[in-house]
Amino acid sequence: MLKDKRITIIGGGNLGGAIAEGLIESHAIPASQIYVTRRHVDKLSHLAQLGIQTGNNNIEAIKDAHIILLAVKPYHIEKVIKQIRGGMSDNQCLVSLATGITLDELKEWCDGGVKVFRAMPNTAAAVASSMTCICSQNGSTQEEAIIQEVFSGIGETVIIHENLMEAATVLGACGIAYVLRFIRAMIQGGIEIGFSAQTATLIASHTVKGATELLIENRKHPEEEIDKVTTPKGCTIAGLNEMEHQGFSSSLIKGILTSYQKIEKI
């Protein structure tokens, strides 16, 4: 569906750049149909070398675009939209990647019939393994499918209701940090039982990757996979029980809730 579309990404930072590269690597769209802008154009040279059009004129960049992605900080969103809205048309889709900016706000600032979307990727977009949550207010089913295809180049996607977008930010975006902190703890434990930091990092990282693949491929509840490695009087169940005695699951749940309460106040 994207083959005949033109995409403009306003904000060619880490995330915007990762999306552009993902689109090319997944062969979703030719590089010549992507336009990426950034204030300092010289920082987009790596994208220009791929055949992507680059520049710092946002109004010029959106002229022929079917999809406009706003990959800028939340406090820049309103300013950028008001800058480009005179050049937008009703057949375009505008996608904001900013936390906390509602669809109603986007629609109000656009001041027209542009289809508005919100998308929440995470930093794993850099390795094409993002989990991106998407919502829209006035987009059709076909347009939603097109926006999903855009983000499929950097990982998996799911359509959710807007009232879950802040929760998606916590679970999917902040969640990267939670998992990395868990891996760091595994590494520290591995060092204590005799491994070098390098070897412990390798084992812990691939163990987490393997556990994740088990859930994704087998589509089972985590406890089903846990049961496969917990034998009576074994070392696995002993370790798990000690972690629970120390509040492992409880602290993680409380951490997620605390982040959610924080984002609700922003």
What does this structure look like?
- This protein is α/β, with parallel strands linked by helices.
- The chain has two domains: 7-160, NAD(P)-binding Rossmann-like Domain (Rossmann fold), CATH 3.40.50.720; 168-265, Orthogonal Bundle (ProC C-terminal domain-like fold).
- It has helices at 14-25, 45-48, 58-61, 74-84, 103-110, 141-152, 165-192, 197-218, 222-227, 235-245, 248-265, and strands at 7-10, 34-37, 53-55, 67-70, 93-96, 115-120, 130-136, 155-159.
- The protein has an eight-stranded mixed β-sheet, sandwiched between helices.
- The longest helix is centred in the C-terminal third of the chain and has 28 residues, at 165-192.
- The radius of gyration is 21 Å and the shape is elongated.
- The relative contact order is 0.09.
- The mean pLDDT is 93.
Structure at a glance:
The chain is α/β, with parallel strands linked by helices and 266 residues long. The protein is built from 11 helices and 8 strands. It has helices at 14-25, 45-48, 58-61, 74-84, 103-110, 141-152, 165-192, 197-218, 222-227, 235-245, 248-265; strands spanning 7-10, 34-37, 53-55, 67-70, 93-96, 115-120, 130-136, 155-159.
